[in-house]
Amino acid sequence: MNPGLRRALRHPSFVAGALLTTLLLAAALLSLVWQPWPPEAIDIPAKLQRPSAAHWLGTDSLGRDVATLLLVGSRNSIVVGVVAVGIGLVAGVALGALAAARRGWTDELVMRAADFTFAFPALLTAIMLTAIYGPGLGLSIVAIGLFNVPVFARLTRGAANAVWARDYVTAARAAGLGPWAITRDHVLPNIASLLIVQATISFATAILAEAALSYLGLGTQPPQPSWGRMLSEAQTLVFQAPRLAVYPGLAIMLSVLGLNLLGDGLRDLLDPRLTRQR
Q: What CATH number is given for 3-277 in this structure?
């Protein structure tokens, strides 16, 4: 067995996080090809049914199948996480690498812009965008993605500055390589592990933020299922049918927990200093 794979299988956080994340991805992929019931099917006479052979997790206040809503909701969470983290990763890494390579006023401008963006968290940005364009999944993705940009920009800039101080980068500059060539060939490959770990953790944050925005009515809109909106709809029935709040709450908790454990495990496995200690 490959030594790296053997070390990964011995890491409890990585294994637990990988299993939970795989379950999330499997649920999202399964919802693309199979669903117990149509997610928009409303059956008022069958509302608030307990789990049964026909409805594995019961039905909600509109008679919709809860298991189907959870499956399709996982797909929406994956889409939000991937796109929002992708926006932050691409734009943030580009800005952070630019700041580290150019220094001077460019560095100062990028960092002050990052500070300004931090003053507008995803929720506040979503509220502002909703006031202008109306609520929707796309606006949630944009708001979460914009919040991720300064996170990746700061991380990239700090890690890149450490790489720029290395002797092999000084040798590359002496050999005539320009700042962009050094960034491509030396800086980005050496900070890739940090970016992967941060992307995993930001993915968990994006899922949590999307659930919060949907809970407030600013995210995914009906009839598209969302874990956050399932929680919002269940709050008025918490004493009559508490399971309607438990299921999406568990889905959010396990997804965020799995991604955070996976990020912690990747950090330990990709950090050479921690690897030597283990």
A: 1.10.3720.10
